[in-house]
Amino acid sequence: MGEAVVAALGIALSPFAVIPAVLLLFTRRPGPTSASFGGGWYVGIAVVTAAAVLLADLLSLPDTPPAWLSWTRIALGLVLVLFGAYKLIKRDDDAPPPAWLTSLETATPPSALRFGLMASAPNPKVALLAIAGGFSLGAEITGGAAAEVAAVLLFALLASATALLPVLVYAVLGEKALGPLGRGKDWLTARIGPIVSVVLVVIGAAVAYKGWSSL
Description:
By secondary structure, this protein is mostly helical. The protein contains eleven helices and no strands.
């Protein structure tokens, strides 16, 4: 379960979760728009994680050590490490902000919901971590379908914490929260590439080590 928690925290630390949630608080309908993004992000993570759990259930054999899972973890971890290292080496510090950042300035709740789905499930940087977490849950959970569903929902909630937290802060503090949240968003925006790369490398190394140690 520790591996799944680490993967969920890796997703939660992704700037793709934090930055849009904060940026959407500066739109015409801040609360509903940012909440819609958080909901879409949560659903996207839950779907990918559930698919990985189901795949782990289908491939694992009763009373047989799932060696395939160890090798899958190693391969998945190496992909994360290599992907993160490549992005770190090839980063361009002078590159302009991604186009999706500016597109969110005029977002509405429906478009924010769609963006939350697209920023999570089809995003390889996020999906790889969700798959790693799903494989871990599928291998470790033995309480049946109900326990697996609960684990997936909790995993997605932890992975979505940073996408939902700005909405809660805004709901409590109102516009007073926009100043600190905006400064945090600017700091993350300036460092989005290195942060994502380091997270991928660290989580990938942990996943690969877990697979290697279980052979």
